[in-house]
């Protein structure tokens, strides 16, 4: 019915693209700004976006007249702004009472976790005819579980790293995010 090697390949591919471990400095930053990160809500919305895009994403983009390149470029722009925030220690994402309710969704669930890179990767995996929907869904489920665990453990991770460790990670991963944004934009 399904091949465990294919599931492992799909899982590791998605893990690398989602890069939940690389997003830890961003998650900590949002946690510090808003006071909380709802692990369940972020995981659920991310899962819904990824699953929905896997099933109908390509058709949806065609209907609204957006190609994958444009979609990827839009995600790259948002990631670019977030990376500048991390590198330069400036606030582009400002939290107000009305945005505290959506800060779990934007920018965490989308575009960081279920961003253009993840969504286009899902479409690519679907296009590879040797992978079944079941295998892709299992790989996606494993990644969703890892996302939930990391989000749930963000306070202990933050305490473990300490203020200096968080600042170092923020700058390093800011540069990495900037490079990802440039790669996604095709420049």
Please supply descriptive tags for the structure shown above:
80% helix; mainly alpha; single chain; 187 residues
Describe, in plain words, how this protein is organized in 3D.
The chain has 187 residues and is mostly helical. The protein has one domain. It has 9 helices and no strands. The chain is globular and about 50 Å long. The chain starts with a helix and ends with a helix. The model has no long low-confidence stretch (mean pLDDT 84).
Task: Summarize it.
Helix content is 80%, strand content 0%. It is mainly α and 187 residues long.
Strand content: under 5%
**Helical region count?**
9
The oligomeric state of the chains shown is: single chain
Integer tally of domains: 1
Number of DSSP strands? 0
- Rg, nearest Å: 16 Å
Compute the average pLDDT.
84
Provide the helix percentage.
over 70%
Biggest β-sheet strands, sense, barrel? none
Question: Alpha-carbon distance between the termini?
Answer: 41 Å
Structural class, from secondary structure content? mainly alpha
Global shape: globular
Low-confidence stretches: none
SSE order, as H and E?
A: HHHHHHHHH
């Amino acid at each position: 019915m399904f091949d465990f090697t294919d599931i492992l390949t799909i899982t590791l591919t998605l893990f690398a693209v989602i890069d939940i471990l690389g997003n830890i400095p961003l998650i900590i930053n949002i946690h510090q700004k808003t006071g909380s990160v709802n692990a369940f809500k972020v995981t659920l919305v991310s899962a819904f976006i990824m699953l929905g895009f896997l099933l109908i994403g390509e058709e949806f983009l065609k209907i609204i007249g957006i190609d994958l390149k444009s979609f990827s470029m839009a995600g790259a722009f948002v990631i670019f702004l977030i990376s500048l925030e991390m590198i330069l220690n400036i606030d582009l994402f400002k939290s107000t009472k009305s945005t505290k309710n959506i800060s779990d969704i934007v920018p965490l669930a989308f575009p960081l976790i279920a961003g253009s890179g993840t969504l286009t990767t899902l479409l690519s995996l679907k296009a590879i005819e040797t992978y079944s929907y079941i295998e892709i869904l299992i790989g996606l489920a494993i990644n969703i579980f890892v996302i939930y665990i990391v989000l749930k453990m963000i306070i202990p991770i933050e305490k473990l790293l300490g203020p200096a460790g968080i600042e170092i990670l923020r700058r390093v991963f800011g540069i990495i995010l900037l490079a990802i944004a440039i790669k996604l934009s095709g420049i």
